[in-house]
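Schema walk-through. Below, the input block comes first and the output block second. Nothing else is stored per chain. Lengths vary across the set, and this one has 309 residues.
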Amino acid sequence: MKGPLFYSKILLFGEYGIIKDSKGLSIPYSFYNGALKKGENTSSTALESNESLKRFANYIEGIDDRLVRFDMDRLLKDVNAGMYFDSSIPQGYGVGSSGALVAAIYDKYAFDKITVLENLTREKLLKLKSIFSAMESFFHGKSSGLDPLNSYLSIPILINSKDNIEATGIPAQQSEGKGAVFLLDSGVIGETAPMVSLFMENMKQEGFRKMLKNQFIKHTDACVDDFLKGDIKSLFKNTKRLSKVVLNHFKPMIPQEFHELWKKGIETNEYYLKLCGSGGGGYILGFTEDIEKVKKSLATHKLEVVYNF
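--- output ---
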């Protein structure tokens, strides 16, 4: 048995802001993916995944069945027979490794599931989001449910606010384009929970809350609008502003050895960096108008292009 593939995701804009109702834009990233598998696999990764699935199965059994019901008999039978999640999605990198797993379990074992093929009204999207939020909380303590939603639907998701999300189209990629969105590997694994609690701690300060509303969210919303409209000139202007705000106010979320690199991008206008997910490690997201130039100046770093302008 090998289940369907579920992709990783990239939250282009909206990290932290969506907790406080900023806009957000999340896109599937098919370079990484995962699928449920059964069969004799005694590798330590498969055994570890199977152990984790056992704990996850026990957890979802406790989810309110008015929200979602699972075929627990079948799930437990498969898990006890050694089922595991075979995934190329790096964990702790901000590209939704747990989201893909949640999507795969819902797809295979939920009763009365909402499918990708039906007319996805806002109500259905919100229902899916709350189901996924309840499921993914097992991994993060508190989850918005957006990563699994993106992985499950495999289409870009526009977050207008907490209760207003929609499937959206994004401008077609220009394969010949010099501009690009890229992932920069920090080489460190990030932990979501401690970063989110640090953010919540900062939210107790009035100055931080003001900055979040008047700068961070304002620039994030502008970036989302620019990206969807395909207004590249304005997008880079607003991404630069966002990059500055993150460097000034989210320093603990940026791995120490990237502080200078971050600053250099802003000063030279060669590229602008921002957090990918909760930060603290994993990937850093970059935006540039000249990817070839960036490949040279960041030659010592691992870099992956995810979208071309």
